[in-house]
Amino acid sequence: MSRRCQLTGKKANNAFAVSHSHRRTKRLQNANLQWKRVWWPEGNRWVRLRLSTKAIKTLEKKGIHAMAKEAGINLNKH
């Protein structure tokens, strides 16, 4: 499974690690992903999703149904 948020699609970003002498080496800036159990009222059950922390905050505001519809995912399969 890829390190990608299931609702927002956030993933790793390529960047440089810059040392004190300003030598630059490639590194990855990974998204802050967490496994989260979310109550889905329409399905009357818990759904386990891999979400970024930003998505968790947005989820509290918008709700699971609206975010899943925007992302185009089927919650019956999770």
Structural notes for this entry:
The protein is an alpha+beta fold. It has a single domain, classed as Ribosomal protein L28/L24 (Ribosomal Protein L24e, Chain: T, Roll), CATH 2.30.170. Helices cover 23% and strands 36% of the residues. The protein is built from two helices and four strands; from the N terminus they run ββββαα. It has helices spanning 53-62, 64-71, and strands spanning 13-18, 24-29, 33-40, 45-52. The strands form two sheets. A two-stranded antiparallel ribbon has the order 1-2. Strands 3-4 form a two-stranded antiparallel ribbon.
Helix-strand blueprint:
Elements: E1 13-18, E2 24-29, E3 33-40, E4 45-52, H1 53-62, H2 64-71
Antiparallel strand pairs: 1-2, 3-4
Describe what is shown at a glance.
This protein is an alpha+beta fold and 78 residues long. The chain has helices at residues 53-62, 64-71, and strands at residues 13-18, 24-29, 33-40, 45-52. The strands form 2 sheets. The chain has a two-stranded antiparallel sheet.
